[in-house]
Write a structure and sequence with these properties.
506 residues, mainly alpha, Sodium/glucose cotransporter, 21 helices, 0% strand, globular
């Protein structure tokens, strides 16, 4: 067994140990889905950041740094703004409201906030999460197979199955507590790896100035963040900048706020989360740039040297710079980015089916303690569905990139939930009909702007550069506001909503 495998297996055993330890705290469905609402700010902050980033950070954003240089920092700026907005503007209000309603899931919160007795918001939420989480998780499984193949030379399909199997063991045994603790552990690995690798690479190259000179010789555009002078260039940069709006209400992130033991934890958690985002994402971009200098010769195409979208830059750079044990640690860093998202998404989707559909809609008499076994089975079934999607895409789309594969799932969840979540914590005039319309439009707009809009004459290329999230987000927001304003029941619900929001604002 090579020294790299020793490090990787040590990491996987640590995850299994966390799951076994967390299983001792598993008593009912609240423990399985929100850790009994007893987690501290440090665990929640690291867990939320590890969950929010996924494989695209270690493989996709590093690849963007290699492909487009400093312009990838528009993603960093967008994410810092999104994370800061979620923690500093929304988290405290949301946490107080979920405590007021005794919510366990985000659909729980939406049903209570909008007094939705027909359970339509729960059903739409559950459907959207199952669809887009399956896509999102399948992207992470695909990245798992790619990581094992790139770093260790394993068969892609074996790597994908092994990685998913480990995640399933600790999720099924330990639930949300295992997810949160393992994500905090993995978030720490990701942070240390991304901060360290560009520093090591820069000094191996002879210093930051040598890297800058080398990149300028390859392409001066790599060292500028300025826009092109056409509409498509502007929309392309705007798309990168607006990636962060997905943090303003996505269930896999906001369920962490539900799990906090107190709203007083939020300010300290915000400092940790924003600092992590700024340093880790900057490290990812710089890793890509340093890797391009070291690994790409002159006029050689980035895709030819570093894979589609430059996403092989981390495996190649680690192989060049790191001795055996450290190389194994960096393999664990990449796997951390992947697995920390798989586990969180599966728990969120499972909660939507078990808590929000089975218990609240289909069989409301079912007690919480009776749902843990069902939750485990549903989590396992969703994982198998995502595995099937991942393997199908791998077999049929050899030129796929992780970044854009992930973005479709991320955009679907974000456009469905974020506009409604933002309006729900700030605007008492938002109604159940407005929330439902917003979620349906967000859900349907993502495939529309992904597959149809780019084919339109004249505006198609610009919309393709903008990507699907910004226009879908805007459409969902406008529809939610418009339907709420025109809703004849708005006045009847406004007083109760205003009282809830006033209490949350104190």
């Amino acid at each position: 067994m090579t020294i790299e495998l020793v490090a990787v297996f040590g990491y996987l055993i640590a995850l299994l140990a966390i799951g076994a330890f967390a299983a001792r705290r598993m008593k009912d469905v609240r423990d399985y889905y929100v850790g009994g609402k007893k987690l501290g700010y440090w665990v929640v902050a690291f867990s939320s950041r590890a969950t929010g980033e996924s494989a695209w950070l270690l493989l996709g954003l590093t690849g963007m740094g290699a492909a487009i240089g400093l312009q990838a920092f528009w993603v960093v700026l967008g994410e810092v703004l999104g994370v800061a907005g979620a923690w500093l503007l929304m988290a405290r209000r949301f946490k107080k409201l979920t405590d007021r309603y005794d919510s366990v899931t985000v659909p729980d919160y939406l049903a209570s906030r909008f007094r939705d007795r027909r359970h339509l918001l729960r059903l739409v939420s559950a459907g959207a999460l199952v669809v887009f989480v399956t896509v999102y998780v399948s992207a992470q499984i695909d990245a798992t197979g790619t990581a094992f193949e790139s770093f260790l030379g394993w068969n892609y399909y074996v790597g994908a199955v092994v990685g998913l199997a480990v995640v399933m063991v600790y999720i099924v045994t330990g639930g949300f507590v295992a997810v949160a603790w393992s994500d905090a552990f993995q978030g720490t690995l990701m942070f240390l790896g991304l901060v360290t690798l560009p520093i090591v690479g820069a000094f191996a190259a002879g210093g930051p100035s040598v890297v800058a000179v080398g990149l300028e010789a390859q392409d001066p555009a790599l060292l500028t963040m300025t826009l092109g002078d056409d509409v498509e260039s502007f929309f392309g940069v705007l798309s990168l900048l607006l990636i962060g709006i997905g943090f303003l209400g996505s269930p896999q992130v906001f369920v962490r706020f539900i799990s906090l033991r107190s709203p007083r934890e939020i300010r300290r958690g915000a400092a940790v989360a924003v600092s992590w985002t700024l340093l880790a994402l900057s490290g990812a971009v710089l890793t890509g740039m340093v890797g391009r200098h070291l690994l790409v010769d002159g006029g050689q195409a980035v895709d030819a040297a570093l894979g589609s979208g430059g996403q092989e830059v981390v495996p190649e750079l680690v192989g060049l710079l790191m001795p055996g044990l450290l190389a194994g640690v960096f393999i664990a860093v990449v796997l951390s980015a992947i697995m920390s998202t798989i586990d969180s998404l599966l728990v969120v989707a499972s909660s939507a089916l078990v808590r929000d559909w089975h218990q609240k809609v289909r069989r409301p008499e079912t007690p919480d303690h009776a749902l843990v076994s069902l939750s485990r089975r549903v989590t396992f079934a969703l994982a198998l569905a995502a595995l099937a999607v991942a393997l199908t895409v791998a077999a049929t789309t050899p030129d796929r990139t992780i970044f854009w594969f992930v973005i479709f799932g991320w955009s679907g969840i974000s456009a469905t939930f974020c506009p409604t979540m933002i309006l729900s914590v700030f605007w008492p005039g938002m109604t159940a009909r407005g929330a439902l319309a917003s979620m349906l439009v967000g859900f349907s707009s993502v495939p529309l702007f992904k597959f149809v809009a780019p084919e339109l004459p004249a505006v198609g290329p610009a919309l393709a550069e903008l990507s699907e999230l910004p226009p879908a987000f805007a459409a969902a927001t406008l529809v939610g506001i418009g339907v709420s304003v025109l809703d004849p029941s708005r006045a009847a619900h406004r007083a109760a909503a205003a009282a809830d929001l006033d209490a949350a604002a104190r």
